[in-house]
UniProtKB/TrEMBL annotation:
A Pfam family assignment: DUF6381
Protein's name in the database: Small hydrophilic protein
Ranges annotated as biased composition (Basic and acidic residues): 16-46
Source species of the chain: Streptomyces pacificus
Taxonomic lineage from the root: Bacteria, Bacillati, Actinomycetota, Actinomycetes, Kitasatosporales
Domain of life: Bacteria
Ranges for region Disordered: 1-63
Length: 63
């Protein structure tokens, strides 16, 4: 498995987990818990986008 395959697999897992968190946030009755889950999903989505961009060579980390 190449480096890009590993990044792609990790990104897919992160996006899937973010979607699961969003769905859980919709089902929970506690507004604070819902907000917490949505925030966690948002951070995970952002992280997956960053990893995806770095894995494809679009973005270079700051040195």
């Amino acid at each position: 498995m190449g480096m890009s395959d590993e990044v792609g697999g990790r990104v897919r897992q992160m996006r899937q987990k973010a979607e699961e968190l969003k769905q859980a946030a919709e089902r929970v009755n506690d507004p604070e818990e819902s907000r917490r889950l949505k925030e966690k999903a948002r951070r995970l989505q952002e992280q997956s986008e960053q990893e995806s961009a770095m894995g494809s060579g679009d973005v270079y980390p700051m040195e």
